Amino acid sequence: MTKPSNPLCVALDTPDVARARSLARVLKPHVGFMKLGMEFFYAAGVAGYEAVAAEGMPIFLDLKLHDIPNTVKQGLTSLMRFRPAILNVHAQGGLAMMQAARAAVTGETKLIAVTLLTSLGDDDIWATGLDRARGTAAHAQALAQLARQAGLDGVVCSPPDLHGIRAVCGPDFLTVVPGIRPDQTDAHDQKRIASPQAARAAGADILVIGRAITGAADPARAAADILAGLS
User: What is the pLDDT of residue 141?
Assistant: First the structure.
């Protein structure tokens, strides 16, 4: 994927198709991508996806598949009917699962892997059994390298993990970064966060932003202001 000229990806986290489509329409001039995740897709399904896609924006279909290799391959094969700009899986599904996913995703759709969720702090991550001595950033780097080995196009990673992933995976590996919070906005359920400016400076290619835009009194103005702050 050519690095996007507009890195903003707005998360349309709502089960309401009409609201999602309305947001897509007003935000289209100010953002580069729309993200549709589980909350939307499980509620609205094919018809909902197609309604938002009809607004003409690239779609990041964020369903984070994580299962045995064949199940993930068949799931992604079914999702390819939509030809989204980006699809994702969990890197913790392992090398064979990601290789199976790679075989299913063809054409211009980019396949990326989630490393460690931005809602997890260090204590949460170590509670899952990962080695505290190695540190969170090292685990994220290892998962990113595994995704690269599997032939994926990039990863979803937290802002604090960006620098290390760039160092081990190179400048052409796509980095999609949630946990983006403009100054003076609530962190909500995210723990490892950064401002849009800090994330871009650290090497983020795409910034995923949800409630700071969609929950604003004027979503279009909020997105425009964030974009202007990156120039």
Answer: 95
Residues 177, 199: contact at Cβ < 8 Å? yes
Highest mean pLDDT among 20-24, 115-119, 201-205: 20-24
Please determine, for residue 129, whether its predicted confidence score (pLDDT) is greater than 60.
Answer: yes
Question: Which residue shows structure tokens 């849009």?
Answer: 196
Give me the residues paired with residue 174 across strands. Answer: 154
- How far is residue 83's CA from residue 106's CA, in Å, rounded to a whole number? 9
- The dihedral sign for the CA sequence 130, 113, 99, 97: positive
Find out whether 32 and 4 touch, Cβ atoms under 8 Å. Answer: yes
Residue 110 a catalytic site member: no
pLDDT per position as a tens digit, 155-198: 999 998 999 999 999 999 999 999 898 865 555 555 667 899 99
Residue with more model confidence, 160 or 1: 160
Q: How far apart are CA 107 and CA 102, in angstroms?
A: 11
- Pick the catalytic residue from 3, 35, 64, 191: 64
3, 37 Cβ separation under 8 angstroms: no
Q: What span, in angstroms and rounded, lies between the C-alpha atoms of 178 and 209?
A: 7
Name the pairing type of β-strands 154-156 and 174-177: parallel
pLDDT at site 119: 77
CA distance 96 to 117: 21
Containing 54, the helix (H) or strand (E) segment is: none
Residue 15 CA, distance from chain mean position: 18
**Calpha distance 173→152 (Å, rounded):** 9
Structure token pair of residue 77: 């094969």
